[in-house]
Design brief:
One of its GO terms (molecular function) is transmembrane transporter activity. By secondary structure, the protein is of the alpha+beta class. It has eight helices and 21 strands. Helix 2 packs parallel to helix 4 and helix 3 packs across helix 4. It binds adenosine-5'-triphosphate.
Length: 360
């Protein structure tokens, strides 16, 4: 089967800022791909180069088997959904969605055909009944659906979404996530969705691509990226790992917080640098009273409780290390009562070596 997208050796600099550095990526057809990375890692630049809004300095983009060299943006068969939607405020929902069909340069559709297609799309994104409302007379979530419908109605082979849910509040964002997934599955086209949010990437993407300083740091299914981040930086972006820097020697990883035996831990090789990192997930740490010990096959450190933060279904507790730095512990409230720790009191933080990842 032809790949939906093939990107090879893409580089792009702005002056002396390297936004993309030799990026290669192959995306199969009919996939939901999340593109994740910290601010400035090159996500938007990558989308803009794929879409044809930006010329790369080097490299090639192939969409559905067709090389895109010198193909202008509007002839690439790519749809683009922006965060700010860029809708026409004075036009109705229906006119916004049909705009690209009747006003395109190549083969504009006859109004009757365009009408039928717009009607189907309005039903698909759940806007039936709102066809004649103006854009300023509908809600943020409905605008998001108009923006999506306007792109999908042109039947693109690939849809690029740049933080499409960023302008929505948390509740709506969660609802739109599952809607986006469902719409994509019904149409069977490939979505490449940029997000700064690791939860969003992990919740939505069949495949997660992580960018780090203009380079691809990891590509994999959501579970494998989550369970086995390829580098300390990827672990850091995922915001679910405590990272300790230090050095590996023999069977021990030595950090300022303590010496961790590594037998049983997951090993990730990062090119033989001496400076390494040791990662343990927030939700794999057990908190015990300071007096309670640990069994020989557990790792234990001591720290001082600072505060807890509730985030809906879970609570994150922060513990200060004597050597400086914080350890975060996440408890899911579905299978535990909310923890009650005392401020400034010391606790033992315990985990199993199998739940740690050693980067060295
Ligand atoms: N037009 C431009 N001129 C100069 N520098 C640019 C331009 N566009 C992007 N950059 C720089 O290129 C790098 C990558 O930017 P890009 O917008 O692709 O990152 P991003 O991952 O999308 O970030 P964010 O999540 O903050 O949107 C950044 O250092 C940015 O400052």
């Amino acid at each position: 089967m032809t790949n939906a997208l093939l990107v090879s050796g893409l580089s792009k600099s702005y002056g002396n800022v390297v936004a993309l550095d030799d990026v290669s990526l192959r995306i199969a057809a009919d996939r939901y791909v999340s593109l994740l990375g910290p601010s400035g890692s090159g996500k938007t630049t990558l989308l803009r180069v794929i879409a044809g809004f930006e010329e790369p300095d080097a490299g090639q983009v192939v969409v559905a088997g067709r090389p895109m060299d010198r193909v202008p943006a509007h002839r690439r068969g790519i749809g683009f959904v922006f965060q700010n939607f860029a809708l026409f405020p004075h036009l109705s929902v229906k006119e916004n969605i049909g705009f690209g069909l009747v006003n395109r340069e190549e083969a504009p559709l006859a109004p009757r055909l365009a009408d039928a297609r717009v009607r189907d799309m309005i039903a698909l994104v759940g806007l039936t009944g709102l066809e004649s409302r103006r854009i300023d007379q509908i809600s943020g979530g409905q605008r998001q659906r108009v923006a999506l419908a306007r792109t999908l109605v042109t039947e693109p082979k690939l849809v690029l979404l740049d933080e499409p849910l960023g302008a929505l509040d948390a509740n709506l964002r969660a609802r739109m996530r599952s809607e986006l997934r469902a719409i994509r599955e019904r149409l069977g086209i490939t979505f490449l969705h940029v997000t700064g949010s690791e939860t969003e990437a992990l919740a939505m993407g069949d495949t997660v691509v992580v960018l780090d300083r203009g380079r691809i740091a990891q590509v994999g299914d959501a579970a494998s990226v989550y369970d086995r981040p390829a580098s300390p930086n990827v672990a850091r972006f995922l915001s679910c790992y405590n990272l300790f820097t230090g050095e590996l020697a023999d069977d021990t990883f030595t950090t300022a917080a303590g010496r961790f035996p590594i037998a049983g831990a997951v090993r990730q090789t990062t090119g033989g640098r001496r400076e390494g990192a040791y990662a343990v997930r927030y939700d794999r740490i057990e908190v015990r009273p300071a007096g309670a010990g640990a069994s020989p096959d557990e790792v234990r450190i001591e720290a001082t409780f600072v505060a807890s933060e509730y985030t809906g279904a879970s609570v994150t507790s922060f513990f200060a290390l004597d050597a400086g730095g914080m350890v975060e512990v996440e408890a899911h409230l579905s299978h535990r009562a909310p923890p009650a720790y005392t401020e400034r009191q010391r606790y033992g933080l315990v985990w199993r070596p199998q739940d740690a990842i050693v980067f060295a």
